[in-house]
Design brief:
Shape: globular
Order of helices and strands: HHEEEEEEEEE
Subcellular location: Secreted
CATH architecture: Sandwich
Low-confidence stretches: 4-14, 17-36
Radius of gyration: 21 Å
Protein name: MD-2-related lipid-recognition domain-containing protein
InterPro entries: Ig_E-set (IPR014756), ML_dom (IPR003172), ML_Npc2-like (IPR033916), NPC2-like (IPR039670)
Number of helices: 2
Pfam families: E1_DerP2_DerF2
Transmembrane segments: 20-38
Strand content: 35-45%
Helix content: 10-25%
Length: 170
């Protein structure tokens, strides 16, 4: 006769009960995926991406290291045909709102992964955004709105991330 403890160990053994193990693994994974979402919605009901992965950031505020680039992979679906896109970044710090300079990185279509413009309606897209964090930026907390606009200046996808500019660790 097995004890309750022995029965529990057998039930959780992945080789003895693979279905139970998979279910427990998925239950444990869901909070990690939800916790990893570091973005929030933009105002005005603009469409949100279904996934944003900011390298090196698993919880807000994300650290923006002076003198380094921030890389974000943004997955979204177009809700209409799009011939061209531009990324507009707006930073808000200490009550001041300013456009965040992206330079040539603002030409969204140049940084699509596995697709290119023009895009069809309902097309799944992965966009690789690179944001330079200049070494002259002040050490400050801020929020950054990323809005991808189509050829008519209508939002294709938009999100906000809370961040802080930090110095590089030694």
């Amino acid at each position: 006769m097995q004890t309750n403890c022995e029965q529990s160990i057998i039930a959780l053994n992945p080789t003895r009960n693979p279905t139970m193990f998979r279910a427990l693994f998925l239950i444990a994974l869901v909070p990690a995926l939800v916790y990893g979402n570091v973005t929030r919605a933009c105002t005005g009901g603009r469409p949100q991406p279904f996934s944003v992965n900011i390298e090196g950031c698993s919880a807000a505020p994300c650290d923006l290291v002076r003198g380094q680039d921030v890389i974000a992979l943004i997955d979204f679906t177009t809700d209409r045909a799009v011939t061209s896109m531009t990324t507009v970044a707006t930073a808000t710090a200490l009550g001041v709102v300013t456009t965040y300079p992206l330079g040539s990185n603002a030409v969204t279509c140049n940084f699509l992964q596995g697709s290119s413009c023009p895009l069809s309606a309902n097309e799944d897209v992965t966009y690789r955004l690179t944001m330079p964090i200049l070494s002259i930026y002040p050490l400050v907390s801020l929020s950054i709105e990323i809005d991808v606009l189509d050829q008519n200046n209508n939002s294709v996808t938009c999100f906000v991330v809370d961040a802080q500019v930090v110095t590089a660790s030694k």
